[in-house]
Amino acid sequence: MTEEGVPIGTDEDFKPRGTVAIVALFAATLILLWLSIYLILIARGVTT
Q1: pLDDT tens, 4-37?
Q2: Which residues of 6-41 are buried (b: 16+ CB within 10 A; e: fewer)?
Q3: Residues 6+ positions from 1 with CB-CB distance below 8 Å
Q4: How far is residue 11 CA from its own chain's centroid?
Q5: Do residues 19 and 26 touch, judged by C-beta distance below 8 A?
Q6: In whole angstroms, what is the distance from residue 26 CA to residue 41 CA?
Q7: Residue 46: half-sphere exposure toward Cβ, Cα within 13 Å
Q8: What is the phi/psi pair of residue 25, to 5°?
Q9: Angle at the Cα of 22 (from 18 to 24), degrees rounded to 5?
Q10: I need a surface site. Which of 26, 41, 46, 47 has the fewest CB within 10 A?
Q11: What is the distance between the alpha carbons of residues 41 and 34, in angstroms, rounded to a whole number?
Q12: What element of type H or E holds 44?
């Protein structure tokens, strides 16, 4: 505990940079996978 009575582990200005980086990496991976599938389908001439 600090002198104000707030536990040491709580930080009001906590910024989850690692979480943001993981989510951004996950989103970029999904976009690249969908783009590669899209390009494969376009190259094969698939029409609906």
Answers
A1: 665 666 667 788 889 999 999 999 999 999 999 9
A2: eeeeeeeeeeeeeeeeeeeeeeeeeeeeeeeeeeee
A3: 7, 8
A4: 23
A5: no
A6: 23
A7: 8
A8: -65, -40
A9: 115
A10: 47
A11: 11
A12: helix 17-44
State both tokens at 9: 């582990």
**At 33, is the secondary structure helix, strand, or coil?**
helix
What tokens does 21 get?
Answer: 């980086």
7: Cβ contacts below 8 Å, ≥ 6 apart: 1
The Cα 14–Cα 11 span in angstroms is 5
**pTM score, two decimals?**
0.61
